[in-house]
């Protein structure tokens, strides 16, 4: 659970919240919490040799200083130096130049080199749980505005041994998830906004389906974290309404409840009173199956009661009557 030098672990312990989070995480996984101490100087030298590298005396000192003797960092910066210098024999002066001092900068540089020629594909995929080849290619076409570059990047990216293919979709192998988490956390706000908008626009342009509709809602909401856009919000409303209706009809309670709530709130916001009643009916119907918060359910009931009193037509009576029976 904790990997690195004791200084990192001690810092986590001093910052009580972070230390508690780590402990809770370990308990949730039923895992043993431990830290890997830094290697001894002799062990660093052995690791360098075992990996097939040659480093002079000054180079070893540079390596130890810039990695705090942490095993994974040693491996990473040696690979970084190899990719930049195109060789496996290094002097201290060379390592001083090519290896950044800061740990984050080391990872940034490493990922830039590793994904050379497909960095856009990596960054987009880092914000997606899974994707098909066609989806990734289509999103890159939107983002880059260059069809051939998008195709070349996806081909290069899929050739790398970092993905696994499962149920018709690609996702990162577990051992490479740290790369994804780092990239997703460290992308600039502007880049995240651009990527989320590109994913949103791509799925919006597809034939409606549960997958495309859910993607439009999810990435539309992610985009709205950075910029207000009424058109995107209205699209989220329409897609949420369609997903909840579909999930209601096939008995997917969790999806019906989740997207029904979104549709209900947005229907109220946009003054779509009949849509609000329909969404209220869907949410209350599935509330018991998902053990929904009673306060939320009764809040919906009260709002729907107000709506019914305003219009009092036969359709409203049908929908509101259904809500009363569900509650």
Binned, the helix content reads over 70%
Radius of gyration, in angstroms, nearest whole number: 26 Å
Query: How would you characterize the largest beta sheet?
Result: 2 strands, parallel
Question: SSE order in H/E notation?
Answer: EHHEHEHHEHHHHHEEHHHHHHHH
The amount of beta strand, in percent, is under 5%
Any low-confidence stretches, pLDDT <50, length ≥5? 1-11
Structural class: mainly alpha
Question: In which order are the strands of the major sheet placed?
Answer: 1-2
Count of helices?
Answer: 18
Per DSSP E runs of 2 or more residues, the count of β-strands stands at 6
Mean of the pLDDT scores?
A: 88
Overall geometry: elongated
End-to-end Cα distance = 44 Å
Write structural notes for this entry.
The chain has 327 residues and is mainly α. It has helices spanning 6-14, 16-28, 41-50, 57-67, 71-85, 92-98, 103-114, 119-125, 133-144, 147-159, 177-186, 189-204, 210-224, 230-250, 253-270, 273-286, 294-311, 314-326, and strands at 2-3, 35-36, 54-55, 89-90, 163-166, 169-172. A hairpin with a 2-residue loop joins strand 5 (163-166) and strand 6 (169-172). Helix 16 (273-286) runs antiparallel to helix 17 (294-311). Residues 1-11 have low confidence and may be disordered.
């Amino acid at each position: 659970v904790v990997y690195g030098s004791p200084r990192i672990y001690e810092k986590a312990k001093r910052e009580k919240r972070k230390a508690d989070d780590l402990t809770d995480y370990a308990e949730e996984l039923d895992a043993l919490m431990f830290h890997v101490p830094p290697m001894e100087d002799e062990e660093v030298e052995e690791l360098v040799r075992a990996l097939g590298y040659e480093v002079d005396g000054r180079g070893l000192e540079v390596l130890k200083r810039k990695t705090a003797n942490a095993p994974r960092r040693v491996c990473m910066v040696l690979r970084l130096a190899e990719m930049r210098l195109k060789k496996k024999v290094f002097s201290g002066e060379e390592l001083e130049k090519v290896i950044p001092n800061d740990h984050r900068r080391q990872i940034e540089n490493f990922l830039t080199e590793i994904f050379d020629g497909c960095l856009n594909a990596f960054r987009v995929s880092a914000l997606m749980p899974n994707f098909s080849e066609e989806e990734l290619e289509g999103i890159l076409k939107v983002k880059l505005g260059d069809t051939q570059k998008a195709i070349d990047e996806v081909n290069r990216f899929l050739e790398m041994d970092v993905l696994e293919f499962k149920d018709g979709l690609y996702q990162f192998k577990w051992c490479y998830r740290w790369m994804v988490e780092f990239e997703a956390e460290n992308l600039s706000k502007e880049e995240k906004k651009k990527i989320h908008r590109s994913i949103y626009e791509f799925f919006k342009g597809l034939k409606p389906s549960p997958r495309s509709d859910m993607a439009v809602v999810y990435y539309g909401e992610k985009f709205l974290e950075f910029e207000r856009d009424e058109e995107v919000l209205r699209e989220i409303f329409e897609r949420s309404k369609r997903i909840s209706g579909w999930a209601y009809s096939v008995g997917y309670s969790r999806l019906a409840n989740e997207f029904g709530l979104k549709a209900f709130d947005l229907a109220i916001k946009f003054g779509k009173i009949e849509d609000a009643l329909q969404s209220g009916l869907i949410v209350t119907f599935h509330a018991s199956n998902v053990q929904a918060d009673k306060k939320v359910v009764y809040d919906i009931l009260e709002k729907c009661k107000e709506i019914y009193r305003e219009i009092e037509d036969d359709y409203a009576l049908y929908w509101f009557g259904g809500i009363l029976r569900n509650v």
